[in-house]
Amino acid sequence: MTKTLIAGLVLAVGLSLCANAASAQTVYLVRHAEKASDTERDPVLSEAGVARAGAVAALFADDGPDLVVVSPLQRTRLTAAPTIDASGAFVTVSPLDAGVEAHVAIIRQGVLALPEDAIVLISGHSNTVPLIARALGYETPDMPECEYDRLIRIELRNGEVSGETLRYGVPSAC
Q1: What are phi and psi of 12, to 5 degrees?
Q2: Per-residue pLDDT of the chain (174 residues; tens, 9 = 90+)
Q3: Assuming Cys at both sites, which of 33, 82, 107, 109 could form a disulfide with 49, CB separation 3.0 to 4.6 Å?
Q4: How far is CA 148 from CA 9, 65, 69, 103, 106, in A?
Q5: Residues with Cβ < 8 Å from 109, sequence gap 6 or more?
Q6: Beta carbons of 60 and 36 less than 8 angstroms apart
Q7: Closest residue by Cα to residue 123 from 35, 40, 10
């Protein structure tokens, strides 16, 4: 079995263990918050990024996610950390080593394997968030490198997809 297939199966099994009492499967997608460096491969968050991570957590003040999906890069986990801490959500890491297409496919497969009442937060990247949304059936434009305030909310119910694009935190300076 390939490493990507194994990772996909682990993600799907991990995702299927999570459930909450919501009316439909709900997926929230955010790009990681502002990073402290544009030259480091895996930078931490800047002060603005830490504040944005807090704004993500505030979105879930009433009903936290059951599951948080992050990439192996620490900025996605740091963005979701306040939400994880407040909600106690299960966290899974979706690998990037097989490429973006495989990363998106693994997340799609895992999300679609969830119970219909699951709430999921996916903290991704400017090049993965739109692709994941599209893979789940919600059309959204590509994301410029300067955009950090996009929040995509998708509901999956009985084969139907609905969603909306929102803004949160301090507006991005694009």
Answers
A1: -65, -45
A2: 343 433 443 454 444 444 333 346 999 999 999 999 999 999 999 999 999 999 999 999 999 999 999 999 999 999 999 999 999 999 999 999 999 999 999 999 999 999 989 999 999 999 999 999 999 999 999 999 999 999 999 999 988 999 999 999 999 988
A3: 33
A4: 30, 20, 17, 20, 23
A5: 8, 11, 12
A6: no
A7: 35
Q: Are 98 and 71 in contact (CB under 8 A)?
A: no
Give the integer Cα–Cα distance in Å for 164 and 48.
Answer: 25
Q: Are 68 and 84 in contact (CB under 8 A)?
A: yes
Is 15:92 a contact under the CB 8 Å cutoff? yes
